[in-house]
Amino acid sequence: MLTICAPAMPKFLTFASDADILALWGAGFLLFSLFTLYMERRRMKRARIDGVGWVPWTGLFLTCAVVGGGLLAVAIPGIVRS
Question: Does Transmembrane appear among the keywords (predicted)?
Answer without folding.
Answer: yes
